[in-house]
Amino acid sequence: NTTKLEFPQGFLWGGATAANQFEGGYNEAGKGLSTADVITAGTHTTSRRITPILEEGVNYPSHEAIDFFHHYQEDIRLFAEMGFKVFRMSIAWSRIFPNGDDAEPNEQGLQFYDRVFAELKKYNIEPLVTISHYEAPFHLTQKYNGWSDRRVVDFYVRYCEVLFNRYKDVVKYWLTFNEINILTLSFGAFMAGAMMPEGNGELAHATVKDEQVLYQALHHQFIASAKAVKLGHEINKDFKIGCMIAYMCSYPLTCHPDDILLAQQKDNLSNFLCSDVQVRGAYPGFAKRYFRDHNIQIKMQEEDEDILKEGCVDFYTFSYYSSTCVSADPNQEKVGGNLSMGLKNPHLKASAWDWQIDPQGLRWSLNNIYNRYEIPLMVVENGLGAVDTVEEDGSIHDDYRIDYLKQHIEQMKEAIADGVDLIGYTPWGCIDLVSAGTGEMKKRYGFIYVDKDNEGKGTLARSRKKSFYWYKNVIETNGEQL
Ligand code: BG6
Fold first, then answer.
1. What distance in angstroms lies between residue 436's CA and the mean position of ligand 1's atoms?
2. What ipTM describes this predicted complex?
3. Atom 4 (ligand 1) nearest CA
4. Cα of 337 to ligand 1 centre, how many Å?
5. Which residues does 44 contact at the CB level (< 8 Å), separation at least 6?
6. Which of 88, 184, 242, 355 could form a disulfide with 214, with the two C-beta atoms 3.0–4.6 Å apart?
7. Annotated catalytic residue: which of 179, 305, 392, 455?
8. Parallel/antiparallel/unpaired status of strands 334-335 and 342-343
9. Atom 16 of ligand 1: nearest residue by CA position
């Protein structure tokens, strides 16, 4: 009488990417400079740098990335070969509005995405489009200091309007902002908020210390997101528009009530604040308390409460890579990892980049999120960043990646059996691409290998890893054979 573990029919299997990490063509066909285009490459131990003026002879990984701009047909053919039902990609805002505040969109930029969507359609692959994935036109940073300025809301909504009208018959699934909850955390101010941070330009420490500014910028993104949702539904009532959260799963290190409470507070503030606003349409009580206790006064316009209420998302999506622990004791050892800085869990192993591997944490997170919102969920990022070795015959035996994904997929099955309405899965970097945290190529997530190294050298040739054939079979059997 045990429960059968299986995926529903029509489950959306696919993969995920972001324009600034894989598209390249950074100054082609009228594209303007984006915030991502002024960030240099780094490594696991050296931080990336933000250079408002481009430096000669320096590697800026977004400029060429893996050149999807010129390889999109080949890449989409490979996704189709794996059997993708859905492909998560983002649109480079500065390809459509080079400065962000331009009067007219850039037609050549729009035509590029016309071609990409037509290619996906050829293979019946449903696009899932992130409207802003860790980038904005750099001009908006220079002139307005990014999202700290309310005028950016209108520029964003105008950009959405152009996308929704242009692609209303070819794109159904949209996400307003990638990992919106990162904006107030370390390096989020620039990556997600397009605001110039304090410090010496090192991305790893690039914060805006004034929480007033950070939360005000976040409020502007909430308003922008809600307006986009409302507008999208007016343009096409069948659009499904979602939020996207970097879900940072944190366990209490001990059963001490101080640790239990702290873990709950972290879950609330780091994860649920944003999705409560985007899913339920209002700031939760714990956020209001945090603002009061920290002397943060969000400047709201009269209509803001209604805007938030009218712009609730249709589904909830998130990234999940690892988990950490929290403790009220300040002397506990921290683990690395760019987003989920927390404490070491003695029961878990970590990746070469110190991200703790915790498949069961995904089941826990899925249940935790679903219990709160009861709307469809999608895991739109998950995966293992690892160094791959190319054998003499060109083959790549990435069993470690297969193991990681297999274990996470097993836990998704469990969560579905627990009653979670999970509708899709797009593992991150389905084709090798630039790491957001370190700017490296060496930290690979893909099923498809791309010949390019950390210095930016290589032929850009694509090849299939062992995981390519494995994932193809996973999709073919709807997750039965792992
Ligand atoms: C997510 C981002 O946080 O993590 C992606 O949405 C990013 O853009 C991914 O690439 C993995 O992080 P990293 O640093 O390994 O590239």
1. 5
2. 0.99
3. 436
4. 10
5. 352, 353, 438, 440, 443
6. 184
7. 179
8. antiparallel
9. 435
pLDDT reported for residue 466 = 98
Q: Work out the pLDDT band at 171, boundaries 50, 70, 90.
A: very high
Specify whether the CB–CB gap between 254 and 327 falls below 8 A: yes
In a domain, 30, yes or no: yes
Adjacent-strand bridge partners of 356: 350
The CA distance from 406 to 470, in Å, is 10
Is the Cβ–Cβ distance between 445 and 22 less than 8 Å? no
**What's the CA gap between 386 and 398, in Å, rounded?**
9
pLDDT band at 401 (very low <50, low <70, confident <90, very high): very high
How big is the CA angle at 423 (ends 247 and 92), to the nearest 5 degrees? 65
Q: Number of folded domains in the chain?
A: 1
The pair of three-digit structure tokens given for residue 409, joined into one six-digit string: 């997929």
381 belongs to the catalytic site: yes
Predicted local confidence at residue 187, as pLDDT: 85
Domain assignment of residue 369, yes or no: yes
Residue 460: inside a domain, yes or no? yes
Report if residue 6 sits inside a domain. Answer: no
Query: Which phi and psi (to 5°) does residue 129 adopt?
Result: -105, 120
Residue with tokens 């999109």: 72
The finding on whether 134 has its CB within 6 A of some atom of ligand 1 is yes
Going by DSSP bridges, is the β-strand pair 448-450/462-464 parallel, antiparallel, or unpaired? Answer: antiparallel
Residue 386, pLDDT score: 97
Q: 126 CB under 6 A from ligand 1?
A: no
State how far the Cα of 224 lies from the Cα of 148, in Å rounded to an integer.
12
Tell me, using a 6 A CB cutoff, whether residue 20 lines ligand 1. no
Going by C-alpha positions, the residue among 33, 30, 220, 242 that lies closest to residue 129 is 242
- Which amino acid belongs to residue 86? V
Q: Which atom of ligand 1 is nearest to the CA of 246?
A: 3
User: 435: CA distance to ligand 1 center in Å?
Assistant: 6
Q: Give the domain CATH number at 146.
A: 3.20.20.80
Please pick, among 64, 119, 381, 414, the residue that the annotation labels catalytic: 381
Q: Does the active-site annotation cover 179?
A: yes
Nearest CA to ligand 1 atom 8: 436
Residue 147: strand, helix, or coil:
helix
In the predicted model, what is the mean pLDDT of residues 478-482? 97
* Pair of tokens at residue 137: 């036109």
- Which residue shows structure tokens 């390519």? 468
pLDDT of 17 reads 98
